[in-house]
Amino acid sequence: MSTVQITAADVNKLRQQTGAGMMDCKKALVEANGDFEAAVDLLRKKGQKVSAARSGNATSEGLVSINISADGTNGKLVALACETEPVSKVEDFRNLAQAVLAAAVANNPATTEELEAIKLADGRTVAETITELTGKIGEKIVIQEYANISGEKIVSYIHSNGKMGVLVVFEGTNGVDITEAGKDVAMQIAAMNPVAVDKDGVDPATIEREIEIAKDVIRQEGKPEEMVEKIAAGKLNKFYKDSTLLNQEFVKDGSMDVRKFLNNTAKGLTVTAFKRVQLG
Predict the structure, then answer these.
(1) 65/76 Cα distance (integer angstroms)
(2) 175, exposed or middle or buried, with CB in 10 Å at 0-12, 13-18, 19+?
(3) Percent of the chain, pLDDT > 70?
(4) Is the pTM higher than 0.85?
(5) CA 169 – CA 261 distance, rounded (Å)
(6) 161 in helix, strand or coil?
(7) Could you read off the pLDDT of 96-111 as tens digits, one per residue?
(8) Are strands 74-82 and 61-68 parallel, antiparallel or unpaired?
(9) Under the phi-then-psi rule, with left for phi > 0, alpha for psi from -120 to 50, and beta for the rest, what region is 57?
(10) CA 96, 100, 102, 107 torsion: positive or negative?
(11) Coil vs helix vs strand at 163
């Protein structure tokens, strides 16, 4: 049992220092016999326990943050996720999202694991800081997605709710300012969710699945077996048109596909890669 009297001022001081709840601060100070540093450690340990206890919880809310380098050749995207929408609007959560993005910009990590290992200004790693905020807020918080992509020109888009972000890599600008056209394509990706840039980028397993589904449907419709392959090939081409970016009908002008729109913007302009992230 503690032999040190814990005052309301002590509890409030620890609360101001850590952001933890009043009762949690009081319990930690009592357990630490009034030692503030030990109490902070206890609260961090509590945060780790909370994080572990909530590890299976769904994280469908959060905030997508994006940074494009000054020369426009690199884009970084961080999707920091939480369990509920109110938490995604809390100042501490939003500050953490910006701190994680800033760490990514400053250190250029290639993977989420490398990002989580970066030390922030206070000496704690990104992962430790996330764990501490998990303990403070009482919800699971994770870096749901991290992207770091480079190319001739990177253009981004963040949806108004902050829960969806897109990075697009363009090549062949030929000195043309493609900022507005790039935004249009990024918004197309956000709205139409293509599976790949072009036909050759579609996963073979996806192609096989689409063909088999088409064949089953065709046979159920009673078409002759000798026609099945030909009709299935037609349905696969329709899949490419609907689901690959360059072949999709351009949303803002249905008279052309995205490939033609890009070529009209700058001859030879194309998209070589994109990243679309959506929370929820």
Answers:
(1) 8
(2) exposed
(3) 99
(4) no
(5) 16
(6) coil
(7) 999 999 999 999 999 9
(8) antiparallel
(9) beta
(10) positive
(11) coil
